[in-house]
């Protein structure tokens, strides 16, 4: 079995030194486990077993702790390097189980299929929809057109937002046009399926942010300053 040694402080990337303080595993092992968890359909115990096959003893609870500590750092860094999205958005919600109850993951993609933004909410109502649209606009600018399904809550939220605008956002209700975002949901659902639901809302929000971040990187949505790198290297560069 490979012996674990404490990662020297001087080897830690600048942005995560404080986050990784007091963790006693090599940095490359920590980052590998975190990336695999949000990139592939794996449970925490799957990762524990995969590391054991490589002679590395890692408890699944340690992997979970790394995931919760690191993913907010990755998301924050990615948002600073995310490419602009288009002005025509497709918005939809999908179900996510948290503490054995269904919650709602609001998501949108643009006409080209690029992820606009995401937000996990406890309820599916006008207030939740409005909070999602406000977040998406804050980070991505105002769209020209938003396509939603027949949800009255989404329509009511957009009408409330348009009430204070001189140039209102054009709203369309079209199930067919929303197929692109419904198909994009599948990539996220495929990753979370082995997790068998989340234990609490905070952890669900953090883990989903990591999955969404990795998904956006895989779709080429990270501005890498003209450097050609694989999605794997781009993910690691977020903590450099």
From TrEMBL:
Involved in the transposition of the insertion sequence. It comes from the Bacteria. Keywords: DNA recombination, DNA-binding, Plasmid, Transposition. InterPro entries: DDE_dom, Integrase_cat-core, IS_Transposase, RNaseH-like_sf, RNaseH_sf, Transpos_IS6. GO terms for molecular function: DNA binding. Gene3D superfamilies: Ribonuclease H-like superfamily/Ribonuclease H. GO terms for biological process: DNA integration; DNA recombination; transposition. This is IS6 family transposase. Coiled coil: none annotated.
